[in-house]
Design goal:
The protein is mainly α and about 260 residues long. Helices cover about 55% and strands about 0% of the residues. The longest helix is centred in the middle third of the chain and has 26 residues. The two termini are about 25 Å apart. The C terminus is likely disordered.
Amino acid sequence: PKGVCPTYTLNGGYATHFIYPPFSFIIYVPFYLLLKFLSLPPYYLNLENVIFDVILSIIIYLEGRKKEDPFALLPIIFIYIMTAVSVPPFYGVFAVIPTTFLAIAYTRRDKIGGVSLGLATMLTQLSWLAVPFVLIYRIKDNREKPAQTIKGYFVPFLITISALSLPFLLWDPDAFIYNVITTDSYTIPVGQLGLTVISYSGVFPLEPWFFTLSLGIVSLFLVYIYARHFELIKESLWIFPLIISWFLWRTLTEYF
């Protein structure tokens, strides 16, 4: 399409696989149909991103007022701030949408919170980094009623993921697993932030396997630290996805 810059690969071609989870395009279908009905140009589709930007701002304000702390929910924006500030939502970067659902998942312990966490997970892989910490937060914050957490939060979370993933898994499991779950680190260029700067700048060539191994080790360590010292650092959960993201092949972007 005119004005669209593709993602170029290491071999000189450009990316042809759709590597985001399925809700990343499903969420745009109703708005796209509305634009077609009103005969509006396709680029109006980015209005949906801007709308979620406003919703996220309102959520941050309401949560800050409720807790009498204006920064109560503000750290969550750092999950997408590197992309959303440099390339705002009206340019097509949809990081604000999963961030909004993560904010809802963090502030609510009911079915809406569980469904929101599932939707965030099915929007972008970057949300996956926050999922274990949000689940630990929900389980330990309501440890007096574990059955309520499982039934009212965890089950809706699993149902949402299953409902969005199963149709595509049944349709073509190999393509789904390769494009969405597998990190396409051998064709997609390295990122420009975090430890990838070492490779990107040419100082020392770090292979993709290094980032995969580091990602696993750091993730397991931080999940353990958060669960072990939950009472001391429970409201600091958003810093952990950011730390993990520094060990991704593509850092703080929509895919890795």
